[in-house]
Design a protein that fits this description.
Strand order of the largest sheet: 1-8-11-10-9-12
Helix content: 25-40%
Order of helices and strands: HEEEEHHEEEEEEEHE
Radius of gyration: 36 Å
Distance between the termini: 108 Å
Largest sheet: 6 strands, antiparallel, barrel
């Protein structure tokens, strides 16, 4: 009988392959990393804005000239209409003085201006005196703090007191000396203002005599500036009372009134080029034309209610070139941000 030999090879049983498990996303780690990146990024942005840039709030402004007269008049003719463009020296209207007005109106008008100048001179002198007293008081505080520092330094040497108190006192001295520098600049401004007051009377009298002719009842009022006529409040043959605005001329140029914080005094100067950031986040460039050392109170919309009332240096910023005027005009009366690099 034939023998059958079976193979001695190893035998294997087929098994089902185990499914490959996908790697699970660690959402907790993702959330933690996102929060970390957000905090680090926010801190970096804050540090850059705080220490790399000087920033200040501001507002775009278009200057306007209001036409009014110091006596009652009757309008004979209007030479322009609303939305018309005018140039300096162009005829705006002709008028005649009302027959009910006394001939002494010109004298009374000049007298009222003289009274105004007297009040302004009194106010300026009083302001200067107050600021000088403030400087003296701050200087006395500085001397007192210096004596306290000298005593503390001895205690620090004896290891009785903490040196941090000395640093706090030195910061107080720096603040007081900075305040005195600002007050000194304000005094210079008011002294200059006092010197300009007599010239104002001369200019007023000259302008008034040019506008009024003693030998003619009919007078033509000419535009003192360039701009667009935005509002006309009266028409031909209307009677206009003294001091009533007859029309308003919006000047062509727009500028920014920027409010520079006191602690940036000495960090920004006339002639500096700055970036102007508009509400729609577009940017423009401007140049600082003038910085007024007479501190202006910061407008309410820029105040921090948790702090005392803040006063800031007023800076006038003009567009860097004519191509930016259109953008600035379209943002009239809107808030903007002024930004300048501290370095480079």
């Amino acid at each position: 009988m034939r023998q059958i030999r079976y193979s001695n090879k190893d035998k294997y049983v087929a098994e089902d392959e185990a499914p490959i498990r996908k790697k699970r996303i660690n959402w907790d780690r993702m959330v933690y990393l996102a929060i970390l990146f957000f905090i680090v990024g926010s801190l970096a942005v804050y540090l850059v804005k705080k220490f790399y840039f000087i920033s200040a709030p501001g507002m775009v402004v278009k200057e306007s000239y209001v036409v009014l007269l110091p006596y009652d008049v009757r309008i004979q003719q209007l030479y322009i209409q609303e939305d018309d463009s005018v140039v300096a020296g162009e005829n705006l209207l002709s008028f005649e003085r009302d027959f009910r007005i006394d001939d002494n109106t010109l004298i009374n008008s000049t007298r009222s201006v003289d009274e105004w100048i007297t009040k302004e001179r009194f106010t300026a002198n009083r302001t200067i005196q107050v600021k000088r007293v403030e400087i003296e008081e701050n200087q006395k505080k500085v001397e007192l703090i210096k004596k306290q520092i000298a005593q503390l330094e001895k205690l620090v040497i004896l290891d009785v007191s903490n040196s941090n108190k000395v640093d706090d006192y030195e910061m107080q001295i720096n603040d007081l000396e900075s305040a005195n520098r600002v007050l000194s600049e304000e005094i210079k401004y008011w002294m200059s203002y006092l010197g300009e007051l007599p010239k104002y009377m001369e200019r007023y009298q000259t302008s008034l005599m040019e506008q009024m002719s003693a030998n003619s009842a009919l007078t033509v009022f000419k535009s003192p500036t360039y701009g667009n006529v935005s509002i006309i409040n009266y028409k031909q043959y209307d009677l206009v009372y003294k001091g009533e605005p007859i029309m308003t001329i919006e000047m062509e140029d727009a500028y920014v009134r920027a409010y520079i914080p006191q602690d940036e005094f000495g960090s920004i100067f006339t002639g500096d080029i700055v970036n102007v950031i508009f509400p729609d986040r577009t940017k423009g460039k401007g140049v600082i034309e003038k910085i007024y050392s007479d501190l202006e109170k910061l407008p309410p919309e820029y105040q921090d209610e948790s702090r005392a009332s803040v006063r800031s240096l007023l800076a006038i910023v003009r567009p860097l070139n004519e191509s930016q005027q259109k953008k600035w005009k379209s943002n009239n009366r809107l808030g903007v941000e002024i930004r300048k690099r501290r370095f480079f």
